Structures are given as structure tokens and as C-alpha cells.
Fold these 3 entries.
Entry 1:
Amino acid sequence: MANKVTPAIHIIGQGVIGSLLASTALHLQFSVQQYIRDKHRFKDRQLDFSTITVQSLSGQITHLPQPDSLNTIQLTNEQLSGLVIVPVKAYQVAQVLSQLQGNLAPGATLLLLHNGMGSIEVASRLFPTHVIIAGTTTLAGFREGAVVKHTAKGHTQLGIVKNASALVPNPEHIALINHIIPEPTWHDDILIPLFTKLAINCVINPLTAIHDVKNGELSSLGLLGIIKQIVDEVVTVAASQGVLLDSASQFKQVLAVIFDTRENYSSMHQDIKHGRKSEIEQINGYVVTLGEANGIDVTGNKSLLQQILAIEKAA
């Protein structure tokens, strides 16, 4: 009987980003394994998830292998080595990291790739002896049933999370990331692009969901005052964490993204429209938590947080 090949890359979840990365890894002939959090959830969906396919930008079709289960990994105490990527919804990250605790081999590298913030603190606490890389991406696609369609290469920004141990990253793991993610930009301080993306998300996501509009319509609804307030609050909260951003520049960048993505619906708009849980608590909620802990006025973000939570509760 042939020996089981140990995957070089482990990807948690079968969402759009995770499936796109798995497809790229397979094309590059890297060994890769995806994991679902709970097999029972898939039985409820009545879909054969071993037949998930990814359609590339060129139209090429890739059939992804059947996923394993994190529950099985926990029961067997299997150690995941190599590169472990967590590209799940922001509100799922803490649970996934908790499931992974005790199942990362020494020397494994953890890559967090999702919207919102707050997971770095959780990962640093649970995995103090592992290299943690955090990032934000505009790599894009959408899912129709069991098919994931790639729509844009986007831009991915990455950085190694700083900790007291000053751990040295494995160059082989960095090379893997550079192969499977299209032309990533690496930052010495990943918190700068993360807070920059957070400011954009804090504005576009909740406002498009509340007003039920495409991104571009935000510029014509008389919302510039609240947009500026939201951005200013994020910049002030970032400063409390040692991240210095310029309010005017951030405001201009938010307006530029609104214009550039004017025909798009935000992810939160789609979550609310389809009755799904949103990432509001890891976006505006993160700003509110840090702001209130540091005596910062975050009433704008808190108002949007409360409005989205109320919509979710009423659904």
C-alpha cells in the first residue's frame, strides 16, 4: 500500500478564496488538502462536496479533492505541518483557531486571510511558538452551488505578525505563498494595510447593507459626513494601537474605492440580503471595542454596528 503523501498546504474551509488557492496549488503540483469544520453541516446541504470545481479566469476547470474534517484531525491528534491557511469568514476564525490548537506541528506556519480584524490577537495567544502571517486580499470569485468561478486576481498584502519571540519564518513556506497567491506585496508592518482596509470596510459594507445599494450609490446619498466620521474614528483607533494613518488620505482612498467598485454589491450587502450572518462585529465592532477600551469616541461606528445587528436580529 502506498504511503500517504503529507500535504504541503492545508486550507481551512471551502469558501471562494480557499478554493481558488487550492486550485492554484494543484495546478502548480503542490500537495494540498482542504478541511471542513464539521461534516454534519454538509449532510444538511445535500450536496456532494467531493465534486466541487473551480473555473479559472481562462475557463479552465479544476476538480478539487474531497475535504477532510477538522473534527477528525482533533480526534486523531494529527499534526498539520507546512503551511496552514485560514481564509474563512471573520466570525469563524476564532472557532477554527481553537479547533487547530494542539494540532499544528512545530515549525508549521499559520496564514490568516480574511476580512475584519481581531484574529491576530487570538492566533498570537493560541500559537505563541508559531510564525503567523496576516493579510488582506481583493482576490475575487463567486460560488454557484458546487462551482467556484474566479473573477479577479486582485491584490494581496501580507506581513509577518510581530511577537516577543521574534520567530524566523520558514523560507519554503514563504515561497509556497508567493507561488499560490498572485504577486503579493509584503509589508514590514501588516497592521498599516489591515487598518487601511478596515477603514474601507467600515464605510462601504454597513452603509451599502443599510441603504440596500451598490457601492457607487454611497457617493450620491448625502453620506459624506458620516463617511468622514467613520474614517476619522478608525484612524484615531489605529493610532491608539501605534498605527499612524492620515485621515485625509484615508478619506480620499475610501471615496476612490467607492468609485472604482461602483457597480459592485458589498459582501455585507449580500449577506444581509440573503439572510446570512455578516462580519459586522469583526469590522465596525472591532473599532468600537478598541475605541471604548481606549476612551475614544466611536459613536459613528457604534451606530452602524447596532443598525446591522438589529437588521440581522429581525431577519
Entry 2:
Amino acid sequence: MEQVYHHRLPKLSNILSFETAAKTGSLASAAECLCITPAAVSQQIRQLEEHLGVKLFVRSKSGVELTEPGISYLAFAQEAFETLRVAQQNMAQYQGDHTLTLTALPALASRWLMPRLYQWMDRHPEIDLRIQATHSLTDFNTNPTDFYLSFGDEHYPQQDKIELFRDSVIPVCSPGLLQAPAPLDNPEQLFDYPMIHVDWGRDGRFLPDWSEWLLAANITTRPPNPGPSFNLSAMAIDAAVAGRGILLGQQSLIREELQQGKLVALSSLALPLNKSYFLIYPKRILNKPKAQELLDWLRQQADSDRT
């Protein structure tokens, strides 16, 4: 490509298309993120390459890969965009922006976060607190999320984070289902009941299942009982409360049901999940009113679970 040098900066939209394509590894995915066509993304990246006089990507059927100049330029582009985002965040103080947005997995939002969050809301009525529940990954560059309660942190290497807690599972059921007092004297008694199963799909390997729990209880002669299966933890908990079987319930999600007697623990044997829950956030959001206070409060809530 012919060497070109411009004092004039490239179009911001061209740089944004480049950064998004580099992040997603695909022109089609970048187009979806930016709400434009793949052809438009391709054209904007080509214009940027012509402006800079270098090839930024190697294109293939599987997607796009950064060239060495592309890797170098991406670092500068990301730093520049982050500076602009910080500047925009700082403008909030002049606009009277008192909004904070929390995003979390649905079960974590409804069963761990919300029962606690009302207390913080009562203390800070001046803050417009917005709660989003989703199973999707959060892109802080395109989503209004300020804090994300995430299962694991491997998808967010560039963001600030704190580890909240590592959950564990114990066998529980509705007291109306039991034929004997809880906890059970012998784990073999669990086979008198249907076993509720939770299938988290690709994240299932991080959630202990009945086979693992029975092995930890030194029961190796029988497979787990069949029973209803759910892909959402909240539905599995509701089924256990309704007496549809015994469940390996996450202790952080069933605390209220245990306290109210809707569920009872059948054994004290708890197996930890293979990943922790994290609070993920871009550092720039700490400039927003009460953001630091909310972060500290969430950390305190997680710490209180460990004591």
C-alpha cells in the first residue's frame, strides 16, 4: 500500500469501525454492534487504511486478524476512545446526572441483589438507580451499564473488578416433600426423591451437579435420580419450593427461602462453584455521583455473606 501521511485526522466513524472489528474479529459482528451493514464497516476500514497508508487487517473467510501495524494502531485508538469516554463521564457532574445502572444475571439480580438493594435506595433517594438483568456479556463501550455483576471475570481483562464471593451448593427441598426430619441421617435417603437438575449450557462445567455431590458424599454405586431439568436457576428454585424434587441450591440464591422455611437443607455438605462472582466496572464511572459509595456498599454486602 502506498505510504501516505495526513495531518488531518481520520473520520471518527472509521476508527470506531476498526476498533469494533478488532474487538469482535468479524466485520459482520462489528456491523451488528454498530447497527450498520457489513459492507459499510468494510468500506470505513478501507478508508482508514488508505488514510494511514498501511494494512490494518488480514481478511479471511473466518473473519479478520490484525496486522502488526493494526495491533499498534488499535492500542492508540482504544486509549483515545477511553479518554473521550472519561471526558463524557466527567460532563455528568455539569448535567446533574444522578443515574447509576447495575446489570446482573437474572437469578443473581432477583435473589441476591434486589433484597439488599432497597436499603441502599432508601439511603440515596437522589440517585436514579436502574437495574438490568441479562445472560449476555456486557460491553461497557456500547451499553449504559456502570456496574456488572458477572459470573467469572475472564471476559473483562481491561476493566476494574472486585471479587464478591464464591458460591456453593447444598441439597435442599420443600419441607412438605420430606418423609423424614431434615437434615437426613443418611445421604442414601436422597434417592427417595426426584432430583432437580440445572443445565447452564457452556457454563455448566462450573456448577457442581448431582454426580459430583454424590461422589463427594462417598456414594458411587448409584447414578443420580431423574427429575425435571431447568436452564435457569430461578426456575429450579421455584420447582424445589413447589415440592417437585430435591435441588442442589446455590446458597446465595436460596437464603431467603431457607430463612422463611420454604426450603430446608438436607445435608451440610456444600460444594463450591468453580468460579466466583465479580463486580466489573470501568474506572471512569467512579467519577459519577455516589458510584464509589455503591461499589463500597456492594463489597460490604458480599463480605457480610462470608461472616
Entry 3:
Amino acid sequence: MDNYSELDLNLIRLFVTIIDTGTLSEAAKRHHITKSHVSKSLKRLEAQLNTQLIRRSTRRLELTQQGEVLYQHGLGILRELEAATNQMLMLGAEPTGTVRLSVPTGLGELILQPILIDFKKAYPRLNLQIMFSNRVNDLIESRVDVALRVVAEPPQDYVAKKICDVQWRMCASPGYLAAHSKAAQDPQQIAQLQFICSSNRRFHEQIILENGETATRLKLQPGLQSENFRFLLTAAKNDLGVALLPSYVVARDVAEGNLQLVLPQYRIGGIDATLYILTTARPHLASAAIKTLTQYLQAQLKTVFGK
């Protein structure tokens, strides 16, 4: 086929779905057609392009080099089309379409769940896809539209909107502190205690305890680490050590007496400590749904954190 401009957009859309789902059967379900129809459509697309797009095996589908090129460009075309359609149709109307949101696990589970549920209630026609993950770095590669991240500095390649600074706290159960009261009150000795903290590599390095002009550097040797802050919180309440967690994670249990702050007169530095909303660097292409979600999160989180 010489005139590629005559390619059927529906075939490209179906091809992208095949790759995203990994099977012809699942793609058929997504498009409400038969598996045979999907197979014939794929063959027709390959015939039009005069090239093989997918190598088929009994276990999986594997893209050819030409298939990879078509998939990446097809994905971009569909996103651009969705953005353009949303911008044209949703001005002054209820947002629709799909928004893919990535949030850190701790913030997502402990703070964002009710916020996102209320957002979905307010915009029922919007398809909200949420990833609870601490490891999404490349928004485009991960197909993420909006991300919330706690970082020291926002990535240069994205549009970053600062929400607030995040304070980190050390805390432990009353039982653990009763058994280790001397070390828990001394910034020179506290690193000897069992620490419960994130599995982020930064916690293998040093943190800084700051009190006015005094700064004490600590080299931690964690005894329990996880990306699940709720699990770490439970571990601390079960006398397993001193937890190093964001203040929003421990605030309720500290208020209820389940945990007590350790060295509260010190500010903890050396850790990623600013919450940002990140979007791709093409804000003019953002759909009405993406803009609505971003503005909603900004307003709600600033209220939660008192900023």
C-alpha cells in the first residue's frame, strides 16, 4: 500500500488494544467483537502495510520492529485524538474520557482514597485509572497522565506544581520507648535502635537531625523496610522499633496515643520532602479531564495539609 494516509484509524486502535491486553481474545472483549474478527482485522492491517507486525506463539504475542514503531506512533495518535476531542467537546461541560493517575502508596492509602472517591462521585462520566506505586518515573513510558510525587526536586521534563513541604517524624510505641528510653532521647545514640522505614535507597544513607544551629548526621541501619507505609505503621505500633515516616502517616496514631514522637524538637532533613503534582510538558494538549483532576487535587491537598 503506497498511501498510508488511507489507513483505517479503527484498525490502529484495535492493534494498540491487542498489544496493551496481550491477547487477541482480550482485545476482542474490549471491542465487543469476536476473536476471529480481531484476527482478520490484524491480517488486513498487515496486508495494507505489507509487513508483519506481530510474531505469534502459543504463549504470547511479540512485536516485530515494524510493529513496535506502529504501536508507539499509534498510541501517540490516539492520545492526541483523545486530547483534541476532549478539548473541543468538553469546554464548559462535564469532563469525560480517561485519566491515568499515579500516587505514592502511603499517600494514596492514607490520604487520597476519600478525595479520589469524592472526585469520582462528582464526575461519574470520567474513567479514572489509579496506580498505587512508588516506582513510576517516566510518565510517558508508563502511560501516566498525572502523578503525585514526594521528591527533593521535581524532574526537569515535566510540569511540576508544588503542593506543600512534607515533614518526616520519628515515632515509636510507648512499650518500645519504655524499653529504650535512654537511647531514644539522645540524638547521638538513637541510630543504635531498630529503625522501621521505607525501602527507598536514601534510607541506607544518612539523615540529618536539625535543631536551630545544631545538626546531627545519622547513619541508619534499618531493621524493617517496606514501600507500604500502612504496614510500617502497624509494625511500629507492635513494638518493633522507631518508625521514620511522613507526619501525615503517623499523625492520627500519635494523637490517639498509640505512638509517641521521638526527639520531636528536631527537624529531619536529608529526605525527599516536597509534594508535587506532575504532568507531561505539553499542558496545551491536556484534556479537560486531566485539568479538572489536577485542579481538584491541588485544592483538596492544600486543604488537607493546611497550605
